Write a sequence for this structure.
């Protein structure tokens, strides 16, 4: 879908931003360019829609050399999400989203209708449409940025560190939202970030760039974690890479029953007891109390992270972060279904490894 | 005040001249300053040449410039051009900097986003850069307009100058009422023009006051 062939970019001052890049981005996947600043990841991205032209080499989008297409025309066919959203401050949210359709000559009503549709797709309420960007939070602005990039339904989406300026909680929301959108829309996405966790989470494939514009490794996240191509990749992927590998494993972990008590109930605490609300959602732990007591929210020891049955990483983290060493397992509604133990997770990992499911 | 009521017709006539002599240079100056300011916002060289030149122009005393203009452009001494040209020069000198600063202050990622969306240069300038530069540009325009309204009176030295004529006549005949009438006219005109531009600015840039 997007192909870099021996692409080099040398700036006027002589610095080489991208050095002989050969890389093919598959259609319908998310490819993440990751690396430290000055590694050429953003330059590479910007050469796709000719915000920057290469010094030598060829870039093909859908088999066509981008240098043969007039830049504005090329860009209207490629969605672009920029850092900090880059919304037009003087236009309403709806008009911001309608930018590319209007540039491409759609009539106003059709462009507006499409914009309203997209507002819903990115999870924003219709009444946001009439507001100005300054009236939105950073996370909401970035959602509008994504909607604007999708407006003309381009097959390719370029995302230049789109979530770097928002706080970690909002960033995680936006990442999950992007994965959900991608599952529906099936775009070819190139995503630039300096955050390796973001790269491993979002990327179907990850290209690790090294300072000097050199592509150090281009592989699936699991391969990157299991077999870094060189010391640079190993150190960039980080010390926790063994632990991170668990993110990509979905093995069965035995779920044990746990003693629970509703808030307000009178109980005798024998071992670690999990306090829950009316909907059976976890509220915290009780332990070390003599005789019969009433379960009060203020007496609870707050719990750790929750395991929702997704990855081994979240199972292990739930067990390790819990004061009782029991990781709370919840269902989709957030209700407690039992607990997991760290040793069980390690055993599940050993089993997966024996079965050849862990990349070597 | 009594002079104004007793000489209503003359007062209106002088007001009309004063308004014309101050507003026409603002309009012409603005039209000239936009491309020059745009150029200065894009090129370091243009900045290095235009800004010092504009500063020098602005330091020439208005009396000198108004007296010398007829000699330089060779028109009759009583032609309104003799006031319009120097005031246009001042407007341009003042506005180049406003326009250049306003355009330079448009956020880089907004411009990059506009380019990435597929804007061509002229359309981008007219629908993105310039509208975003409006708040600062209009602030500059208000200063230029008010300063022009005050400077027009100097034109009385070459026999023009709206309210300025009331000053010279009042001074020569020792008639304070006439001087006062010119003074009140100038102040009222300046306040009204400034308020009008403020209002136009607010209507054109509702987004600028859209806070959280």
């Amino acid at each position: 879908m997007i192909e870099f062939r021996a692409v080099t970019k040398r700036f006027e001052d002589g610095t080489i931003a991208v050095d002989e890049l050969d890389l093919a981005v598959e259609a319908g996947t998310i490819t993440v360019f990751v690396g430290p600043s000055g590694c050429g990841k953003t330059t590479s991205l910007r050469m796709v829609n000719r915000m920057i032209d290469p010094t030598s080499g060829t870039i093909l989008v859908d088999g066509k050399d981008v240098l043969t297409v007039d830049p504005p025309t090329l860009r209207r066919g490629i969605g672009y999400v920029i850092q900090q959203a880059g919304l037009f401050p003087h236009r309403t949210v709806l008009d911001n989203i309608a930018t590319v359709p209007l540039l491409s000559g759609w009539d106003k009503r059709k462009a507006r209708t499409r914009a309203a549709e997209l507002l819903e797709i990115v999870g924003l309420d219709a009444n946001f449409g009439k507001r100005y960007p300054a009236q939105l939070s950073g996370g909401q602005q970035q959602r509008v940025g994504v909607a604007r990039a999708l407006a003309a339904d381009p097959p390719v989406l370029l995302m230049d560190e789109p979530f770097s300026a928002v706080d970690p909680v909002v960033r995680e929301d936006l990442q999950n939202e992007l994965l959900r959108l991608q599952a529906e829309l099936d775009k070819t996405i190139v995503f630039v970030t300096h955050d390796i966790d973001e790269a491993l989470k979002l990327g179907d494939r990850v290209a690790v760039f090294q300072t000097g514009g050199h592509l150090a490794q281009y592989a699936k996240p699991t391969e990157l974690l299991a077999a870094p191509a060189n010391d640079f990749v190993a150190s960039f992927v980080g010390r926790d890479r063994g632990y991170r590998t668990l993110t990509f494993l979905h093995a069965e972990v035995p779920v044990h029953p746990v003693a629970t008590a509703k808030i307000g109930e009178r109980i005798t605490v024998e071992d670690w007891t999990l306090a829950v609300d009316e909907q059976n959602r976890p509220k915290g732990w009780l332990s070390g109390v003599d005789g019969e007591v009433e379960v009060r929210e203020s007496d609870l020891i707050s719990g750790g992270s929750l395991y929702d049955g997704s990855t081994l990483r979240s199972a292990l983290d739930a067990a390790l972060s819990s004061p009782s060493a029991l990781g709370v397992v919840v269902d989709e509604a957030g209700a407690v279904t039992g607990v997991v133990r760290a040793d069980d997770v390690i055993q599940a990992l050993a089993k997966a490894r024996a079965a050849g499911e862990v990349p070597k | 005040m009594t002079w104004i009521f007793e000489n209503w017709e003359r007062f209106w006539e002088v007001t009309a001249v004063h308004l014309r002599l101050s507003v026409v240079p603002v309009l012409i100056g603005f039209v000239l300053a936009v491309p020059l300011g745009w150029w200065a916002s894009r090129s370091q060289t243009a900045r290095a040449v235009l800004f010092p030149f504009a500063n020098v122009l602005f330091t020439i005393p208005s009396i000198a410039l108004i007296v010398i203009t007829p000699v330089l452009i060779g028109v009759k001494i009583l032609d309104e051009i003799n006031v319009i040209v120097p005031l246009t020069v001042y407007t341009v000198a003042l506005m180049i900097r406003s326009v250049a600063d306003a355009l330079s202050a448009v956020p880089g990622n907004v411009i990059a986003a506009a380019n990435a969306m597929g804007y061509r240069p002229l359309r981008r300038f007219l629908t993105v850069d310039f509208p975003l530069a409006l708040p600062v540009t209009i602030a500059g325009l208000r200063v230029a307009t008010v300063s022009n309204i005050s400077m027009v009176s100097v034109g009385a030295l070459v026999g023009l100058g709206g309210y300025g004529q009331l000053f010279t006549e009042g001074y020569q005949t020792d008639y304070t009422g006439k001087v006062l009438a010119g003074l009140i006219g100038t102040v009222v005109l300046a306040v009204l023009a400034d308020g009008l531009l403020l209002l136009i600015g607010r209507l054109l840039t509702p987004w600028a006051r859209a806070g959280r």
